[in-house]
Design a protein that fits this description.
The chain has helices at about 40-55, 100-110, 120-130, 135-140, 175-180, 195-200, 255-260, 265-275, 310-335, 355-365, 375-390, 395-400, 420-430, 435-445, and strands spanning about 1-5, 10-15, 20-30, 30-35, 35-40, 65-70, 75-80, 90, 115-120, 135, 145, 150, 160-165, 170, 185-190, 210-215, 220, 235-240, 245-250, 285, 305, 345-350, 370, 405-410. With about 450 residues, it is α+β, with helices and mostly antiparallel strands. It has a seven-stranded mixed β-sheet with strand order 18-19-17-16-22-23-24, with helices on both faces. A six-stranded mixed β-sheet has the order 3-2-1-6-15-14. The chain is globular. Keywords: Kinase, Transferase. Belongs to the FGGY kinase family.
Length: about 450
């Protein structure tokens, strides 16, 4: 079983050894927002987990193990028994830095010292009846250095013990069994963040593989033998249970930019009109808000259009293509820093519901693309739970057995998009947002036709 703690809901999935989904459940979550503050109640997480897990078990199947993923950077303080002492500060709370122990220190200043727990840690503690070690994936943004295998600042009070994802860390106790329906004694396996869980569910786990998750925003994650060194600091790496590295980055472009430009519109109807505009009459850099994180860091970046669209369909086409151009630029930057970006590629996220956009992105990238049948983070945690029980010798092999590919999309060609892509690259560099080395590498790759279909 995999349990996924999201921002708006909890999802539980029960999967067989071949990936067949045998049960599922979900329950909503709500938070409190006030200016930069974003908090949730840890008690609500446990209530939602109980509901989702019981729904997933309705068919009568019982899991051999369970693993939990959650949002990256969400923390709370607890007592020595794992009982929450504070609200949870969410990953996008704006009162403290996004990386390092900033959010934990924020809580300690307000509430005093306590055990630092990540969102998933609270649930594993409730399942086991005691605090269990956290995993290096959830600990990354709290200041854990997976290369050194140690906390960057061990003087921070309340830091948890850390193990590699996929490690067996405990068992479900009798009290949790009564509340959730999980059998007492069910092994608990150390999980990973929701982004890593989605990557596992995509099956992109062989060295050189990449998963592009396109929803409200765009996230790329891949597999390398060593963590790539990024002088711009926009790529970070998680440690895989296999000992490989999972580098990636998150852009602020994505579907949110389309929603902001066309609120309440019918995407399917606009997709149909966009077919007549390849390439579009304008070049777009689509952002849902202010600032960019990947493939470059520019806090002051804003959306723009170069040229004037001839119609709503042309404008929509420019936005679809603009997101795909940013996706291509992300891969160019990854290639620049030594993270080979020309291996197998999967698409996941809400955008794959648009067959047109999926085909367009494949053509802009000039890449064959695989679409998994199920790409929920909860499935990724079910795969990790299977690894923890010894069902496969490596995570990649466990995923190969449990992840099914729904379809493969092969581009017909992409040459007509090269000119508008390089126009966007030029403009991003002119505005001093895109570093010159990344811009130059993008041009070199375009000239050398690396993206040949």
């Amino acid at each position: 079983m995999g349990i996924d703690l999201g921002t708006q809901s909890v999802r539980a999935l029960l999967a067989a050894a071949d990936g067949t989904i045998t049960g599922g459940g979900s329950a909503p979550l709500a938070g409190r927002r006030a200016g930069p503050r974003h908090e949730q109640s840890p008690a609500d997480w446990w209530t939602a987990v109980r509901t989702a897990v019981r729904q997933a078990l309705d068919g009568g199947e019982r899991p051999r193990a369970v693993a939990v993923c959650s949002t990256s950077g969400t923390v709370l303080l607890a007592d020595d028994d794992g009982r929450p002492r504070t609200p949870a500060v969410m990953y996008d709370d704006g009162r403290a830095p996004g990386r390092g122990p900033g959010r934990a220190l924020l809580l300690q200043r307000e509430y005093g010292h306590g055990r630092i727990l990540h969102q998933a840690d609270l649930i594993t503690a409730r399942l086991a009846g005691r605090v269990l070690p956290t995993d290096s994936s959830h600990a990354l943004k709290t200041g854990y250095d997976p290369e050194r295998g140690a906390w960057s600042d061990p003087s921070v009070p309340g830091l948890p013990a850390v193990v590699r994802p996929g490690t067996l860390i405990g068992e479900v106790d009798r009290a949790a069994a009564e509340e959730t329906g999980l059998p007492a004694g069910t092994p608990i396996v150390a999980g990973m963040t929701d982004g890593c869980a989605a990557q596992i569910a995509s099956g992109a786990l062989a060295v050189g593989s990449w998963n592009s998750v396109l929803g409200t925003t765009l996230v790329l994650k891949g597999v390398t033998t060593a963590p790539p060194r990024d002088p711009d600091g926009v790529v970070y790496s998680h440690l895989s249970p296999d000992g490989h590295w999972l580098p990636g980055g998150a852009s602020n472009t994505g579907g949110g930019a389309l929603t902001a430009a066309f609120p309440g519109a019918d995407p399917a109807a606009l997709d149909e009109g966009a077919r007549a505009h390849e390439p579009a009459g304008a070049v777009a850099y689509p952002l849902g808000g202010r600032g960019e994180r990947f493939p470059f860091a520019a806090p002051d970046a804003t959306a723009f259009l170069l040229g004037t669209p001839a119609s709503a369909a042309d404008h929509w086409a420019a936005l679809l293509q603009g997101v795909a151009f940013v996706e291509r630029l992300c891969l160019d930057h990854l290639d620049l820093i030594g993270a080979a970006a020309d291996g197998p590629l999967t698409f996941t996220g809400g955008a794959v519901r648009s067959a047109y956009w999926t085909r367009l992105r494949a053509e802009v990238l000039g890449r064959e693309v695989r679409i998994p049948a199920v790409s929920e983070p909860a499935l990724g945690m079910a795969v990790l739970a299977a690894l923890g029980t010894g069902a496969a010798p490596t995570l990649a092999e466990a995923a190969a057995r449990m992840v099914r590919i729904r379809e493969t999309v092969r581009p017909e060609g992409h040459g007509r998009f090269t000119e508008p892509y390089l126009t966007l690259v030029d403009e991003l560099e002119r505005r001093a947002w895109l570093p010159a080395p990344t811009a130059a590498h993008a041009r070199t790759r375009a000239d050398s036709q690396v993206y040949r279909s």
